[in-house]
Design brief:
Oligomer: single chain
Order of helices and strands: HHHEEHHHHHHHHHHHH
Strand content: under 5%
Structural class: mainly alpha
Number of strands: 2
Largest sheet: 2 strands, antiparallel
Distance between the termini: 29 Å
Number of helices: 15
């Protein structure tokens, strides 16, 4: 134990010394450059939006935590919190630069912004000309943090904590950052193709959904009897969904990167889609099972938020109603169909985020209007059938990339250090076996 403590102290000292050297060398956040273009209202709104999106990661922890069995509540919530902290480090040191640095052949960004070199008060005009570059980094960090957190629902209740940490580091670096560059980065090949993804339908939800599918396949089913277990804490589920709904206004409307009409439109369409998806999922439950499920309504709202994400700043309120209604039905039926298979995607990440994201991204190709957002494109219903094909291509490319890379990374990690906890540790629960704590004390 003493040797481990000494090793950790020495590691921390080396890292601190290295970062101090970089700071003295000028390779950290800088504030130089022309700041005359910065708009106070835009900066204030994006700052608030970034904080709202930050709330979504612990909210996801409560949403997932309520769905798992009681003996895994603490581990599920803390995984989300630690992923946020870990993602902050990755995004600061190299992730942001790989996603938004100068394009290397349309596939990935360079290392121009590594350690936030040159990212400060001056805008990065190619992305957001009226807010500080550091604020753009800060806003995008929240997307990079919640995306791997979404994946953990697929292998909840059975993954080693140390293996999860390694997976998040590798996945964010080699899967998320390139995909973000393809779709959002200047010079990214899907952006050049004309793909529309206002706030992360493909980059966040399709990518997380297919990665979750691959993860569930590689890690395998939980111990006998765990599949189909009831939620342990429905109030946590509702609380998490409500906070996700609240934070999602920053997620979508903040992606306008300004306080303007597009941001307001995204606020409205986000709320409408979530509401109608909650109603449609609840209706499906009512018809099939005879009772309106609280968990179903909460999950339906999240699915509506997922589906509207790529379209929020490009479509009108009528489209938001349609997207929301269909999202609740499609995701609900996807859960039912996948439950009939051998797949154990613990919290239905693929059915909700994968299918919801795929549907929303393709629906954007039907409903997008340049009159809503001149920076976008018209969809099929407004005279541009090509946009549907572009959206399908973006979904397909992102899905194949996320699935294949996640499977490869997980198999490597499994070979080197193992992915799953031991059978007896899984039976004990990850709260005790991985963290030595329980959600509720018996004292």
């Amino acid at each position: 134990m003493k040797v481990k403590i000494v090793s950790l102290v020495m590691m921390a000292f080396v890292i601190a010394a290295f970062l101090t050297f970089l700071a003295q060398s000028g390779t950290v956040v800088t504030s130089g450059g022309d700041t005359g273009q910065i708009n106070g209202a835009d900066s204030a709104w994006v700052s608030v939006a970034a904080v709202l999106v930050m709330l979504m990661t612990p909210a996801l922890g409560f949403f997932y935590g309520g769905l798992v069995r009681q003996k895994n509540i603490v581990s599920t919530i803390v995984q989300c919190v630690i992923i946020f902290a870990l993602s902050t480090g990755i995004w600061t040191l190299w992730g942001f630069s790989l996603a938004f640095g100068p394009s290397q052949g349309g596939f990935i960004g360079g290392l121009k912004y590594a350690f936030l070199h040159g990212v400060g008060s001056a805008p990065i005009e190619a992305y957001a000309a009226t807010i500080p570059g550091a604020l753009f980094y800060f806003f995008q960090l929240k997307f990079a943090a919640i995306t791997p957190a979404l994946i953990i629902g697929a292998f909840a209740e059975r993954i080693r904590f140390r293996s999860l940490i390694v997976f998040v580091i590798l996945w964010t670096t080699f899967v998320y950052a390139p995909a973000a560059h393809w779709v959002w980065g200047v010079g990214g090949w899907l952006r050049n193709l004309g793909a529309l993804d206002f706030a992360g339908g493909t980059v966040v939800h399709v990518l997380a959904g297919v990665s979750a599918l691959g993860s569930a396949m590689v890690i395998g089913r939980r111990n006998k009897g765990a599949h189909g277990a009831r939620p342990s804490n429905v109030p946590f589920v509702i609380l998490g969904a409500a906070l996700l709904w609240f934070g999602w206004f920053g997620f979508n409307a903040g992606s306008a990167l300004a306080m303007n009409g597009v941001a307001v439109s995204a606020l409205v369409t986000t709320n409408i889609a979530a509401a109608f998806a909650a109603l449609s999922w609840m209706t499906v439950d009512w018809v099939l099972w005879g009772k309106p499920s609280a968990t179903g309504a909460a999950t339906g709202a999240v699915c509506g938020l997922v589906a509207i994400t790529p379209a929020a700043g490009y479509v009108d309120s009528t489209a938001a109603i349609i997207i929301g209604l269909f999202a609740g039905i499609i995701c609900s039926l996807s859960v039912l169909l996948l439950d009939r298979t051998r797949l154990d995607d613990t919290l239905d990440v693929f059915a909700c985020h994968g299918m919801g994201g795929i549907f929303g991204a393709i629906a954007t190709g039907f409903f997008a209007q340049k009159i809503i957002n001149p920076a976008g494109a018209d969809g099929l219903f407004y005279g541009n059938p090509k946009q549907v094909l572009i959206q399908i291509a973006a979904v397909a490319a992102t899905a194949v990339w996320g699935f294949v890379m996640s499977v490869v990374l997980l198999k490597i990690i499994d070979k080197v250090m193992g992915l799953r906890v031991a059978h007896d540790e899984e039976e004990m629960g990850l709260d005790l076996s991985q963290h030595g704590e329980t959600a509720y004390s018996s004292d």
